[in-house]
Amino acid sequence: MTHQEGAAGPISGRPPVSAAQAAEQVALACRIIAEFGHEDLTLGHASVRGPDGRTIYIKRKGKALREVLPQDVIAISSHEEEGYLTPGAHLETVMHTQAYLARPDVGAVIHTHPLHSIALGATNHPLALLSHDALLFPDGVPVFDGTAGLVTSPAHARAVAQVLGAGRAVLLRNHGILVVGEDIRWAVLAAITLERAARLQFVAMTLGALVPIPHEVAGELSAAKYQAEFTDEYWMAWCRMVDGAGRGACRD
Amino acid sequence: MTHQEGAAGPISGRPPVSAAQAAEQVALACRIIAEFGHEDLTLGHASVRGPDGRTIYIKRKGKALREVLPQDVIAISSHEEEGYLTPGAHLETVMHTQAYLARPDVGAVIHTHPLHSIALGATNHPLALLSHDALLFPDGVPVFDGTAGLVTSPAHARAVAQVLGAGRAVLLRNHGILVVGEDIRWAVLAAITLERAARLQFVAMTLGALVPIPHEVAGELSAAKYQAEFTDEYWMAWCRMVDGAGRGACRD
Amino acid sequence: MTHQEGAAGPISGRPPVSAAQAAEQVALACRIIAEFGHEDLTLGHASVRGPDGRTIYIKRKGKALREVLPQDVIAISSHEEEGYLTPGAHLETVMHTQAYLARPDVGAVIHTHPLHSIALGATNHPLALLSHDALLFPDGVPVFDGTAGLVTSPAHARAVAQVLGAGRAVLLRNHGILVVGEDIRWAVLAAITLERAARLQFVAMTLGALVPIPHEVAGELSAAKYQAEFTDEYWMAWCRMVDGAGRGACRD
Amino acid sequence: MTHQEGAAGPISGRPPVSAAQAAEQVALACRIIAEFGHEDLTLGHASVRGPDGRTIYIKRKGKALREVLPQDVIAISSHEEEGYLTPGAHLETVMHTQAYLARPDVGAVIHTHPLHSIALGATNHPLALLSHDALLFPDGVPVFDGTAGLVTSPAHARAVAQVLGAGRAVLLRNHGILVVGEDIRWAVLAAITLERAARLQFVAMTLGALVPIPHEVAGELSAAKYQAEFTDEYWMAWCRMVDGAGRGACRD
Q: Under an 8 A CB cutoff, do D174 and C132 touch?
């Protein structure tokens, strides 16, 4: 039974309490980020760590982000050596499993190909602290440049996780982004906000010399701006956006 | 009873004559500016000064701009010390109350996070008088840089109002915009027009050396261009846009 | 009876044979250019010269371009001194009447505020011959800078017509565009194509040093590219776009 | 009988086995690329080589890309001298026939006027290897500059095919693009991906100094990224996009 077909209430964006809830979170996340320009062919994927801490629920191959329903989500093990090779899994599923292994605090992972973020990662400029968007990443966003190609091996995926470090996001040079969150709310927020920050920087670069937020206040401002209870609000508004009568439409 | 559910005629954009009308104006304004790219998560808010001159009707927390209905509007007092702390109020409600206190001529206030305006405010360049859009701000748009963070204290909010001065708009550096108007028509016009002017400047900066409108004629041209009766027309057209069969859709 | 309410066939874009057909052409033209980004508040207007050669059918004040129906079109005389002051007429109607007086070959006129064209006109750079779009204007597009304000007097309007000369378009510096055509097909084509050419130039300016079409071949290439029979095709496709089940929607 | 009106299953994007299937592929391809910004008036066309190897199925004149149905597709011979002059054929049909003659490996051809690609081709800069998009063209995209005008003669069309060489795409300077594919899947992929790569380069040029993928690894990365089985997935997702309840709409 999908959310669309009868769930009594809204789906929480907090860590899932069941496999079914995890699958619904992944499907919603995919449809949400599609609305914000993250769709590229049938590529990109979101995942959520299940209640057992080791099962990962992740979008399977074959659907575009805007189309994903709970039945398009598969379960794989992050602790089995070849879990990422589960039939139907995206080639780059290993980036998710390695991120979960490296970061026990992480409950959700997203990899996509958003245009402005890729453009930024294809230059020698770092993300600048120009707006509240960039404040979600007060210590900046590192760039992984171990390969410009698909990240399909555990070795490359571990290297991505290493560059990510304790942060929320990493730019995969010439390729895309990987973002993580405490749960699906935070991962979606990171994906959308990173792309918006990159787009805003693109516009600002043309308008004049940048006047960024001073680094010394970024941490404090970030903590005030990004609080868990706010993220609940955002999640519910996103769900209403993609899950209304006009599912998949930007307006309800 | 909302406008959608039975109001006999269109809602005026002139100063409201009742609490119900004020709430409808706020809801319509939120939905209108959402159509023009001002939506950011569930953030941004519009408010209207009520008929008693001291009650402020303002969007509450929890809804995205495109979703706001009259029942999502709360009443707070601008003259009580802690009015802005009313449960459900956005953290930055205090920017509205301080603007109303500082400017008795103001009947509506909007704070949002539009991308091109934020980008402009994150550079060292002022808004240029490139088009009729910029003419709504013939004396330019000042920049508040007292903090890059949320404006949640009366002290910061008073400082924003001070930078605003007698004008229609202020850029909050690295954050967003605050615009004011004689009534909701003018505030919506200022919000939409400032963002359009910033976007136009972004395009022009790439196309060549700017040839702005001479400052010495700006005041006169502005007065001819922006007249109250025109603003009535704009308001009615915006209302038809968001309030038709396809409420929330860009087309009716 | 409007086209929507029962016309047996499609509306031709050739010079109108009746007042009713002229009004339908104007309404369709307004809705078409709205789809291509020309809408700005309730501003901008299209007009058509009627079968008598001296009556002008023009959008009246009060509607946004996307909303215009035949009943929103008024008839004025281009040969009466004060025809442009007809009640309900846009303030800048005089630009239309003066263009018709100066150019007996012109059957339709459009004035709008498209963003990229205004941005181009607010710089010191001319339109470059970068693509087939610009080829519609093989001799370039002149800039009127007699005033940055509204063009409401016959004197200013005559000056605009003088700068237009024998061409299809003029940039009104810091304000908008005026385009003309043999009939409504050509005027709509000029409006849409000028804005697309300006947008393309904006993109190209960032991508590298421009390699324009040589001026000496522009005239010949333009004549081959822009033929009356092609324009019939375009007009019919635009009408299908705005006049289908989803009138006003971009897709049918 | 069109696909919409009763085909039992999805239309494959592999080389067509019948004339009917070829026509459906062409119609779908036109509607798909329209969704990705390739529409320009009623211009642009897709074609597919039929099962006999010498009949070409190509969009006829008169419809915009978003409107094309199988009945808007005509059959012409690529081996008859004047096949491209078939009544109803676009003037530039000869570019298709010459590409098929020069490239026996090619099963589908698309010519369109996408804005960012044209802008790139109107500058002195080549396509840079900035992202996986550009990897579809690991050896770069050559520029045809034999004429800036319409390509309507066999001589010009042969010259375009010569510049195309063994590649997937050619920029027609000041005009548009020509892309080819083993079948319609690959041709659509090339059209969409070239335009996305050009747009991404536009954004990156503003953001900083480019850090492209090293040419020496481009071939290998390209082969891993672009595999035939993936292209099947993309084709099916595109077909669902344009062929659902909301045919022609971006969302289903």
A: yes
Cross-strand bridge partners of residue B123: A210
Query: Pairing mode, if any, of strands A169-172 and A143-144?
Result: parallel
Q: Kindly state the tokens that stand for B43.
A: 């953030």
- Per 3-state DSSP, chain A is made up of helix, strand and coil in percentages (nearest 5) of 45, 15, 40
The answer to whether the predicted template modeling score (pTM) of the entire model surpasses 0.90 is yes
For chain C, give the mean pLDDT.
92
Q: How many CB atoms lie within 10 A of CB B6?
A: 7
Say whether D115 and C217 touch across the interface (CB within 8 A).
Answer: no
In 3D space, the residue among A46, A51, A1 whose CA is nearest the CA of residue A28 turns out to be A46
Whether residue C197 is predicted with pLDDT greater than 80 in this model: the reply is: yes
pLDDT at B78: 85
Question: What pLDDT does residue D9 have?
Answer: 58
Q: Give me the pLDDT at residue C245, please.
A: 39
**3-state SS class at C172:** strand
pLDDT of residue B74: 98
Secondary structure element (H or E) that encloses residue A225, with its range: helix A215-225
pLDDT band at residue B5 using 50, 70 and 90 as cut-offs:
very low
Nearest to B112 by CA among B171, B197, B185, B53: B171
Query: Which of these, B63, D182, D203, lies nearest to A114 by C-alpha position?
Result: D203
Please tell me which residue of chain C has the smallest CA distance to D143.
C211
Grouping H, G, I as helix, E, B as strand and the rest as coil, residue B11 is coil
Q: What is the ipTM of this complex?
A: 0.93
Check CB contact under 8 Å for A212 and B41: no
Confidence tier at C82 by pLDDT (50, 70, 90): confident
Whole-angstrom distance, CA of residue B248 vs CA of residue B66: 6
Check: CB of residue B138 under 8 Å from CB of residue B166: no
User: Are A224 and B150 within 8 A, CB to CB?
Assistant: yes
User: For D90-99, how does the pLDDT look when each residue is reduced to its tens digit (9 = 90+)?
Assistant: 999 999 999 9
C62 neighbourhood in chain B, CB within 8 Å: 233, 236-237
The answer to whether C45 and C74 are in contact (CB under 8 A) is: no
Burial class (CB in 10 A: 0-12, 13-18, 19+), C218: buried
Radius of gyration of chain B (CA): 17
**Angle at CA of residue B176, ends B158 and B48, nearest 5°:** 60
If we measure between CA atoms, which residue out of D104, D82, D94 comes closest to residue D58? D94
Q: Which residues of D touch C211 (CB under 8 A)?
A: 122-124, 173-174
For β-strands C169-172 and C143-144, DSSP reports them as parallel
Query: What span, in angstroms and rounded, lies between the C-alpha atoms of C131 and D172?
Result: 10
| pLDDT for residue D5 is more than 50 | no
Between CA D26 and CA D5 the distance in angstroms is 17
What pLDDT shows up at residue C240?
A: 95
Q: β-strand A73-77 against A55-59: which pairing, if any?
A: antiparallel
Contacts of C69 in chain B (CB under 8 A): none
Q: Is B141 exposed, middle or buried (0-12, 13-18, 19+ CB in 10 A)?
A: buried
The residue with tokens 């209430």 is A9
- How far apart are the C-alpha atoms of A235 and A250, rounded to whole Å? 15
Answer yes or no: is pLDDT of C90 > 70. Answer: yes
Are the C-beta atoms of D41 and D112 separated by less than 8 Å? no
Specify the amino acid at residue C144. F
For B46, the 3-state DSSP assignment is strand
Yes or no: say if A198 and A117 are a contact pair by the CB < 8 Å rule: yes
Q: What confidence category does residue C9 fall into, taking pLDDT thresholds of 50, 70 and 90?
A: low
Q: How many CB atoms lie within 10 A of CB A231?
A: 21
Least Cα distance to D179 among D103, D240, D232, D230 occurs for D103
Give pLDDT tens digits for C112-137.
999 999 999 999 999 999 999 999 99
Residue D70's pLDDT band, with cuts at 50, 70 and 90, is very high
Q: How far apart are the first and last CA of chain A?
A: 22
